[in-house]
Structure formats: structure tokens, C-alpha cells
Amino acid sequence: xxxxxxxxxxxxxxxxxxxxxxxxxxxxxxxxxxxxxxxxxxxxxxxxxxxxxxxxxxxxxxxxxxxxxxxxxxxxxxxxxxxxxxxxxxxxxxxxxxxxxxxxxxxxxxxxxxxxxxxxxxxxxxxxxxxxxxxxxxxxxxxxxxxxxxxxxxxxxxxxxxxxxxxxxxxxxxxxxxxxxxxxxxxxxxxxxxxxxxxxxxxxxxxxxxxxxxxxxxxxxxxxxxxxxxx
Length: 231
Known about the structure:
The protein is 39% helix and 15% strand. It is α/β, with parallel strands linked by helices. It has 2 domains: 2-32; 43-230, Glutaredoxin. The strands form 2 sheets. The protein has a 5-stranded mixed β-sheet, with helices on both faces. Strands 1-2 form a two-stranded antiparallel ribbon. The N and C termini lie far apart (66 Å).
């Protein structure tokens, strides 16, 4: 009887104490549980077949090289467009009958996911700039629901594009000089952080990999949650 009386008398106190204890445990759990962190890929850590021989020894400080290309609207697109942004990169060509249509559909799904997020953008490079003129890219963009403010399809100097693929983004196995007989065909999507560093590689034809990319974008956004200060 005494126990029942005690619990009735101090019921609110015990409930409050229990809630405070539970909250404290949850706070300790959050503090002690490490936040997920994406790797920062350096040339020496990527499959050597994908890395230009001049960079295979590099273990730190790799950044995406500056570029200047032309998008589907005829506008000049440089690294400035992506300054302080997270962005996803791929390499394609508009007449590709095999993997490129699948990659473009998956890029469209990413565009839908990031549509209202000003800190995440897309960038697709044609590997066939001789065919993929500005007019051709515009036609392709209209057919595939590209939103200009979110997604640039770019063309330009072939050697510059191929150097980016091989020496910045590491998406092509074979060596080459960007000449007329040189051809890149890669299914890889590359996740780049606001500091121009590679944070992930994904099979652009596999929607499971795209779901993983969605998750990694959120992790990266959390890492750079002070975007307002950057911008």
C-alpha cells in the first residue's frame, strides 16, 4: 500500500524524471554517434585504369580543373556557374543508342529531386562536340525535360572535354588526345562538392546507384550546411 501511495503522490515527478532521462540519453546518442562522411577521392585512390598516368601518384589536393564550355542556349559556362555548389557530372552524346538514354532519364530523376534546392546542380558534357552543336543540344534538352537553371548540357573544344574526363573526373579507362579517332563512353556519374573535390562515383544506368547518390547528396548538404555563409 505504501508503494502505491508513493507512486501516486510522486507520479508527475517520476514521469518528468523519466522524460528528462530519455532526452538526455538521446542527446548523448546524437553526440557520440559520428555523422556520416563521404570520402574525398584523390587520383591515387581511384582505379588506376581511370587515372591519367601523370596523376596516378597524386594523394592530395586534387580539384576539378577550370573550364569554359558552351551550353544548350549558347551561353558560356565556366567553373563560376558552379561556384560553392554541389554538382553531378556525366559524359554523354545525343546520338548514343545504348547507355546515354538511360543516363539522361536518371539525370532527369535527379533534376526532379533537386529542383527546389539552389545549392545542387547538374552538368552533362557531350563527348561528340562535332555532332552536338548548340542547336542539337537544345533540341535534346527540350526532348528530355532539361531545366536550364538546374542542368547544363555543354559542348566545346573536344580536347578540353576529354582532358576534364580523364584528368579531373576520372571517368575514362583509355588514354587519348581528344583527336578525331578518340572516343569516351562512360556510364559514370560523379558527385562534386563546393570545393571542387570528387566525393562519389555512381553507375548512371543503375537506379539503385542513383538512390545511393540521393542519399550522398543529403550527407554532403549536411557537411556544407553553412551554404548561406558561403553564398
